[in-house]
From TrEMBL:
Name recorded for this polypeptide: Lipase family protein
InterPro entries for the chain: AB_hydrolase_fold, Lipase_secreted
Species of provenance: Agaribacillus aureus
């Protein structure tokens, strides 16, 4: 069935620049094929893959032509094919219990296999409507699907807490559940491709920005530190992630105010809920914010809605004892959790590039510089820090992709 793609774009936080780009690109309607079929059931032999639904097919020529019309001709040489977007559900675990999670698998069209795999990881989102698998012709595309136009099978997990698992609070910046959700989706994607008789190679690329940058290093670390693992990483591109969580917090808490308090409330509340701590929220937040927090993170609000319901004055937002302890380096349950889940101090064995803009207003660039230096000092002889343009956190994504995608293409 032919339908027109709308001129809307899925509103990922931290993807402002890319969103604007594809909003322009798709402002002219193009013909695409979408499917109203019911999800295909899981074959009995699959361990991870549960079901799939074909959502959309778009051609190479449509993408190339509209990119030129939008004034982004520098990308047309990277658009080598069309692609088909599938919503996939799969099995993973949370607190040692089996759950069903979701994401997208985007398959290049018209290419002979074996195709390289690329696991792409989104930045911080607050609303479930922003999850990759919530894709629809009304919401439009998020951006990461377009990496498949460069010849990769793109695997785009929602992460736990969105899509099929939206009833769980997202375990924000949690190493264990971030890496396991990605690894299990990669396994599910392979089973799905096998079922579709689509050949794929053993090459695996990892990419992400902001929280997705953190997730990218987390899953690379999980792969490379697993003695029984079967995956190997071809190359990793991580942008502006909070790899050293205590370091990011130290930089933020030097100031009296922070323009995006939703991030601080999110990482704190997620630690409380994920670990099922018994201390009341007033041990972390002051009223009236402590009472508001659960409703703010129920998946119904966007970033601006959450920020508007909080205070950018850190002294008003946080419990004063907790805030003083964090600022003075006094160990707390929360600071221990931040340290446990950081991914800035280990030994990577495959190529890694860390991208960051000096104009970043959310994650300090020193976090990426220090992380790169630690990884190199640990023996990571294929680690490189790359400074990129952009005058804000969100606007640096496209400069990162302009460097990372050609690098990946050269290695595929």
């Amino acid at each position: 069935m032919d339908k027109n793609i709308t001129d809307k774009i899925h509103p990922f936080n931290f993807f402002t620049s890319l969103r604007s780009y594809w909003l322009l690109v798709f402002v002219v309607a193009i013909q695409a094929c979408s499917s109203d079929e019911q999800p295909a059931p899981m074959p009995a032999e699959n361990e991870f893959f549960v079901s799939s639904t074909e959502l959309l097919t778009v051609s190479q020529s449509d993408i190339q032509q509209l990119a030129v019309l939008a004034g982004f001709g520098q990308f047309t040489g990277l658009i080598e094919n069309g692609f088909t977007i599938h919503r996939v559900t799969y099995k993973t675990t949370f607190r040692d219990e089996p759950i069903t999670a979701s994401g997208l698998v985007v398959i290049p069209n018209g290419l002979d296999g074996p195709l390289p795999l690329l696991s792409a990881h989104h930045g911080t989102i607050f609303s479930n409507d922003e999850a990759p698998s919530e894709f629809s012709l009304t919401n439009g595309i998020s951006g990461f699907e377009l990496l498949s136009a460069a010849g990769f099978v793109s695997i785009i997990p929602d992460f736990i807490g969105y899509g099929e698992s939206k009833d769980i609070l997202h375990p924000y910046y949690n190493f264990k559940y971030t890496s396991s959700a990605i690894l299990d989706m990669i396994s599910a994607a392979k089973e799905f491709l096998d079922d579709q008789n689509i050949r794929y190679s053993e090459k695996l690329f990892l990419i992400g920005y902001s929280e997705g940058g953190y997730a990218t290093l987390a899953v690379q670390r999980a792969i490379e530190e697993d003695p029984d693992g079967t995956l190997s990483v071809t190359a990793t591109a991580a942008g502006a992630g909070g790899y050293d969580i205590p370091g990011v917090m130290d930089e933020i808490l030097k100031n009296d105010t922070y323009d995006s308090p939703g991030y601080l409330a999110f990482i704190t509340y997620a630690a409380i809920e994920t670990n099922q701590w018994s201390e009341p929220l007033t041990g972390f937040f002051q009223e009236p914010f402590a009472s508001r927090i659960p409703d703010l993170f129920d998946g119904s609000l966007t970033q601006s809605g959450v920020n508007n319901a909080l205070s950018d004055d850190l002294g008003d937002l946080f419990n004063p004892t907790l805030l003083a302890n964090l600022r003075n380096g006094v160990p707390t349950q929360l600071s221990d959790e931040f340290r446990l889940n950081s991914v800035d101090d280990w030994l990577p064995t495959s190529p890694v590039k860390l991208y960051h803009s000096p104009g970043d207003n959310i994650i300090p660039i020193v976090n990426s510089i220090d992380t790169a230096n630690k990884l190199i000092a640990n023996g990571g002889d294929q680690v490189e820090f790359v400074e990129i343009g952009g005058n804000s956190h969100g606007s640096a994504l496209i400069p990162m992709l302009e460097k990372a995608i050609p690098w990946f293409i050269s290695l595929r």
